[in-house]
Write a structure and sequence with these properties.
Distance between the termini: 25 Å
Structural class: alpha+beta
Shape: globular
Number of strands: 2
Oligomer: single chain
Order of helices and strands: HEEHH
Mean pLDDT: 89
Helix content: 25-40%
Low-confidence stretches: none
Length: about 80
């Protein structure tokens, strides 16, 4: 999950009730080196807040592709479903 600033880290940890672990975590929080990851975010409706902004499918594809384990497999699946080029 991308967060705008390191100053937001504690807020997200408390809001999501996260616990820090050394390995095997389910959620990773990143502060991007530039704001490009927030370009053309997709609003996703949910039951808690009106919308959650999700990165574009292209950004998500690149992020998944570069993840170890099953990232490339998940990226390929996303490409089949959402990226018709």
């Amino acid at each position: 999950m991308y967060i705008p600033s390191i100053d937001d880290l504690e807020i997200w940890e408390k809001t999501l009730e996260l616990q820090k672990v050394d390995i095997g975590g389910n959620i990773e929080l990143y502060v991007p080196y530039d704001k490009g990851v927030f370009y053309k975010t997709q609003p996703i409706p949910n039951k808690i807040v009106p919308e959650i902004p999700i990165v574009s499918n292209v950004q998500l594809y690149m992020d998944l592709f570069n993840k170890p384990a099953r990232g490339a497999e998940q990226a390929a699946h996303l490409r089949e479903l959402k990226l018709p080029y």
